[in-house]
Write a structure and sequence with these properties.
Number of helices: 9
Order of helices and strands: HHHHHHHHH
Largest sheet: none
Structural class: mainly alpha
Radius of gyration: 31 Å
Strand content: under 5%
Oligomer: single chain
Distance between the termini: 113 Å
Shape: elongated
Helix content: over 70%
Length: 164
């Protein structure tokens, strides 16, 4: 009986491997109800999309694709992400008091502040509003009296004539 080659042995062993959890999750695509369940879990527990998907045993990439396709799910996801950031910001006080290493605590807090300023610009952002919006429009008022205008014009013509 001929002996098996090493390549053939590897093929046989590879065929007997257990499939990964992600592979099994990707076989059954999630529905919109599954995406809602993940978003609700995110909102209730203040966790990230990846954590919620993993906890509920869904493929997070497929959940993100479903959310991108539905305006209703996008709105729910946005609200859940805001809730997640509020929870992370609340944790900053605990980090500052419980972490023994001051530099590590500072780094963790800075990372949370950075992420919060990106996700919730209106609440945690550090940008200055230059242009107006619905809530506080810019009002520009430029008042010039006729006398000031005449004096400016006369001054310019006199200066212009004097140079020639």
């Amino acid at each position: 009986m001929p002996s098996m080659s090493e390549a053939k042995k590897k093929q046989i062993k590879a065929g007997h491997r257990k499939p990964s959890a992600e592979y099994l999750l990707s076989l059954t695509p999630p529905t919109e109800d599954d995406a809602r369940r993940v978003i609700e879990y995110m909102f209730d527990h203040g966790v990230s999309m990846r954590s919620a998907s993993k906890q509920l045993q869904y493929n997070s990439k497929q959940i993100v694709e479903l959310i991108a396709q539905s305006p209703e799910l996008r709105a729910l996801d946005s609200e859940a992400r805001c809730n997640y950031m509020r929870e992370k910001v609340r944790e900053m006080n605990m980090i500052a008091t419980l972490e023994e290493d001051v530099q590590r605590a500072r780094l963790k807090c800075d990372n949370i502040k950075w992420e919060a300023s990106r996700i919730m610009r209106s609440e945690f952002g550090d940008s200055v509003v230059v242009s107006g919006d619905k809530n506080n429009p810019l009002v520009m008022e430029h008042v010039v009296s006729a006398n000031q205008l005449v004096e400016k014009i006369r001054g310019r013509t006199i200066e212009h004539d004097a140079k020639d």
